[in-house]
Amino acid sequence: MKISIITVVLNGKTYIQECIQSVLNQSYDNVEYIVIDGESTDGTIEIIKKYESNISRWISEPDKGIYDAMNKGIQFATGDIIGILNSDDMYADENVIGQVVNSIAEYDSDTCYGDLLYLDCKDINRQVRYWKAGAFNKENFRRGWMPPHPTFFVRRQVYEKYGSFNLNFPLAADYELMLRLLYKHKITTIYIPEVMVKMRTGGRCSPGLLNTTKVVFENYKAWKMNDLKPNPMTFVLKPFSKLRQLNYRPSLLPSKY
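^ thats the sequence. predicted structure below, dont judge the formating
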């Protein structure tokens, strides 16, 4: 199967080269790589051009935010499966995409997801959090659970049938998407019990009372918009679920990228 990987970026000069290399170094051959740049001005475009012979398609133009950029990438994608890798993230090793394709094919699944490792943005050899997603149980959404979105791969036909990111959710469109697909429409999924993506800490949804409040509100809005009734404790439990991710796994730290 052909797999499309989408990277969205805006002024990401510091880390995007590692991100690009982690895609290009994958052992799986049939990869379409799409880069959506939001008209960067910091030198990001020059780095993209350095690798453009190995990038299937890239554009640089203004957008309405990160999820709008992701939607553009999904519209361009021609692969059977679509994955999204942000510009300051990297795949854990060269076999991630191969594992994704094999798992989706073996279990005839519409989606898959795995574990996520958070690294210190200044020292990627220091682990901050380990997000062990665990096997899928639809009702876990009512307990504040969600899959790590950077590890979430989706068949293109699912996006075509059920839609992509809802721009009415500027901070939690990924949560709304997964809630809509996995909980409301009961799309099939498979859990890969491996670290698939390494993510640097920080960014647009960094911790803080204001951001946390906004995200909780958008999570609630996601249930209401999809005509779903959550457990009243869902939005209390969700932030506390991060506490379980602080189980350090130093053996996972070495990276080729």
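Residues 3-252 form a domain with the Spore Coat Polysaccharide Biosynthesis Protein SpsA; Chain A fold (CATH 3.90.550.10).
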